[in-house]
Amino acid sequence: DSSMPPSVVASPPPSPPPAIPDLGGDADTMTLTALVVIGGVDQSTGTLSAFIGSVLRGFDGSAGRTPFGPYVGRPMYMLVIHPVSNTGGEQVTFTLTRDGQGTVQLAGSVTFIVGGQVGSALAPAIMTLGASPTAPSPPPPSP
Prior knowledge:
By secondary structure, this protein is mainly beta. It has strands spanning 30-38, 41-42, 47-52, 55-60, 64-65, 75-81, 91-98, 102-105, 110-111, 117-118, 125-128.
């Protein structure tokens, strides 16, 4: 019968987004806005990771371009950093991991302050190459 409505087929629900690692689930965080510069070149690709000791406490895998201010158009990483303790005071260090180029330790550290903010789009923390980079594995010898 042509007067019958077409059948409705239910679609399966969309898959859930990938799980984000549990970084403590603590509301007592701090934020960081950083411009990473290596060899005089702004780094626009790679993942900026924050560590307290050897434990990952925050990361940003996508530098965004600042739409205004003195750093307009330059790539900024924005991280929420989670503490190990609720009292703060821990030293936070940073690495940048780039596809095919390995991971480098960035110079310096910041002291974790509950509710703290380091850098902004108008005045980012400038991060540079540290003294001890982790070099990528060399390519295999050619035949």
